[in-house]
Design goal:
The complex is a heterodimer.
Chain A: H1 7-30, H2 33-59, H3 67-84, H4 88-110, H5 115-135, H6 137-140, E1 146-147, H7 154-176, H8 179-189, H9 191-196, H10 201-227, E2 229-230, H11 232-235, H12 238-251, H13 258-272, H14 280-295, H15 299-307
Antiparallel strand pairs in A: 1-2
Chain B: H1 2-30, H2 37-55, H3 63-80, H4 90-112, E1 125-128, E2 131-134, H5 135-157, H6 159-169, H7 171-176, H8 181-206, H9 214-228, H10 233-253, H11 256-273
Antiparallel strand pairs in B: 1-2
The chains are: A mainly alpha, B mainly alpha.
């Protein structure tokens, strides 16, 4: 496919993107405190959905415990900030590295598991991380949680979270348009065939897994700083994994813009509509999951793609 | 001390076997991981609570209500929703059953509140030498073993059970042999839900219950069917007992909190070394 004829559309889109980013960059000057917090969380969700997309959208290996990396990053950063007096920015990066280390330990054996078994192992990983964090009370404060020193840094965290979202999306773009991305997608379509063609599947799956774990680790660190208090239940909920997945799925998994679209759509809907109903919104969320899975498994971009021929890099 | 721990491990294990046999049925017949399995167990537990609370009749008799009710709920879920994702990639069924689960849990919270509820029926314990046996646990154990064995007999001996086993071995060949595979899936989901409902009734007599109790049992059932070999029904029985023992022993030698981590390490080890489970033969 060539895009010579589309170059004008592409230019318009690119210009729109640049204007959008500039607007987001100057937004904090005009925004209320609520507005900043809203956007900040939206950025985090974009990054999380994007990170899940990198491993599961591309390779088809369903990371059903992706929040384990988020929680690990949150705890690593919170411990560095609270007990070692680190600045939150390097601490969050260390959160990302902690998540990568965990991914290396878990990914090496578990990425050999196929289909549902990998999903079960990842689900279990999340449970175990929560148990371990509660157990090592000396380090993590156990079930009582960990409080960080008070700091008003919403605007800085807004930019950091925005940067994380952009970095995750750029990473997704680079990977999806590269040979590496093609190899990952070959694994998704047919792993045996990929191996037969000479793709070192074990190695590429692991690379994708590590990159995919780094992002939620950093976001977890930012989340810990933003909230000022974390506890095992608040940073290891299965619901967060599911939300990431549904966002990626809703927008269109395996694409660059799908997770962004899905995160924006679902998060806005969640904040604007469901926040008014305490219990009902979870029931509604359940219904939305069922709806998305049954009626639009390829997501918004998938539906658009059926009508128009779109580039994979979209 | 060790004797006491082994006994409590077996008492807990029988319940795990019962609940996991249901999950194994669903996984065996459809290759679907049912995240809502524990949620159905929770609904079974509430059936028993309300039975005892409103009628004041022996809570063990509520099995007569919870099993058929959950059987019907299972049929309904399979007929309307789950059947649409049976042949889809595992992500669809995982998400779909999670969606069902979260909706049901929150409906239960609306209807029953999140308060801890308990059925105070049998308290106290039998003393056998140095070993104390809680009455409610012992009787629940007897029920769990009986129901599990009945279900197992049903799968092994009856015509429908044979059809279920055939479908879980190879659904396409089963279809060629004249087995109505969609109907078998429907029954399998119903029976599995009835087993979860029975498990819930027995849990309600032993422990306090609340709407979010199910997730733990879903996860433990995963452990059991992996230990025993997915879709391997005798394996589920063995796996349940084994999980009960491992949990109790590791909480004796380590701490209660770490026992879950030990069970997970066991899960990963079994998945890596014997992916078809402890009793499994060839890998499928």
């Amino acid at each position: 496919m060539t895009f010579v004829s589309l170059s004008r559309t592409k230019k318009t889109l690119l210009a729109g993107l640049v204007i959008g980013l500039i607007l987001l960059a100057i937004y904090p000057m005009a925004a209320t405190g609520y507005g900043i917090r809203f956007m900040l969380q939206l950025f985090m969700w974009v990054a999380l959905a994007q990170s899940w997309n990198l491993i599961s959208g591309l390779t088809g290996y369903v990371s059903f415990g992706h929040v384990a990396f988020f929680g690990t990053g949150a705890y690593a950063a919170a411990i560095l900030i609270a007990t070692h007096g680190w600045h939150w920015a390097p601490a969050s990066s260390m959160g990302g590295i902690a998540a990568v280390v965990l991914a290396l330990i878990i990914g090496y054996p578990c990425l050999r598991l196929k289909g549902p078994y990998f999903a079960i192992a990842m689900l279990g990983l999340n449970e175990v991380m929560r148990v371990l964090v509660s157990y090592f009370e000396g380090l993590t404060g156990g079930g009582l949680g960990l409080s960080l020193p008070t700091l008003y840094a919403s605007v800085q965290i807004y930019y950091a979270a925005g940067l994380a979202a952009i970095a995750a999306s750029v990473a997704a773009h680079l990977i999806i348009t590269s040979r590496f991305g093609l190899r990952l997608m070959t694994i998704r379509e047919d792993e045996v065939a990929a191996e037969a063609m000479g793709v070192n599947t074990a190695r590429y799956k692991l690379y994708a897994f590590l990159i995919s774990a780094f992002i939620p680790g950093v976001v977890g660190g930012l989340h810990a700083r933003d909230q000022g208090y974390i506890e095992p239940i608040s940073v290891f909920p299965l619901l967060t994994t599911i939300t990431m997945i549904v966002m990626a799925l809703f927008g269109g998994k395996g694409t660059v813009w799908g997770p962004v679209l899905g995160a924006v759509g679902l998060f806005c809907f969640q904040e604007l509509v469901w926040a008014r109903f305490l219990y009902l919104h979870q029931i509604l969320f359940g219904a939305i999951i069922v709806f998305v899975v049954l009626l639009m498994p390829r997501g918004i971009l998938g539906l658009v793609q059926q009508r128009y021929h779109l580039s994979r890099s979209l | 001390m060790v004797g006491q721990v082994v006994i409590s491990g077996l008492l807990a294990g029988a319940l795990y076997s019962l609940v996991a046999l249901g999950l194994a049925l669903i996984f065996g017949v459809m290759r679907v991981i049912n995240i809502a399995h524990g949620t159905i167990l929770m609904l079974g537990a509430y059936t028993t609570f309300w039975w005892f609370h409103l009628l004041g009749v022996n809570p063990y008799l509520s099995l007569l209500a919870s099993m058929p009710l959950m059987f019907l709920l299972g049929l309904l879920l399979q007929r309307t929703l789950v059947t649409r994702v049976v042949d889809a990639p595992e992500l669809s069924s995982l998400l779909l059953t999670f969606g069902i689960s979260i909706a049901l849990v929150n409906i239960a919270q609306l209807a029953f509140t999140s308060d801890l509820r308990s059925v105070e029926f049998l308290t106290g314990a039998f003393l056998v030498g140095p070993i104390a046996l809680s009455k409610s646990r012992l009787i629940s154990f007897a029920f769990a073993v009986t129901i599990t064995l009945l279900a197992f007999w049903f799968i092994q001996k009856t015509k429908l059970g044979k059809a279920i086993r055939a479908t879980s071995q190879n659904s396409e060949v089963a279809m060629i042999c004249g087995i109505n595979v969609p109907r078998i899936r429907l029954y399998a989901f119903g029976i599995a839900s009835a087993l979860a409902g029975a498990g819930g009734s027995l849990v309600a007599v032993m422990f306090a219950i609340q709407p979010e109790m199910g997730q733990v049992y879903t996860f433990k059932s995963f452990l059991v069917i992996v230990l025993g070999g997915a879709g391997n029904y005798p394996g589920a029985l063995l796996g349940g007992m084994l999980l009960g023992l491992v949990e109790q022993l590791s909480s004796l030698f380590l701490t209660t909190q770490l026992s879950e981590a030990v069970a997970y390490v066991l899960l990963v080890l079994v998945l890596l070394v014997r992916p078809s489970g402890l009793l499994g033969g060839r890998e499928r």
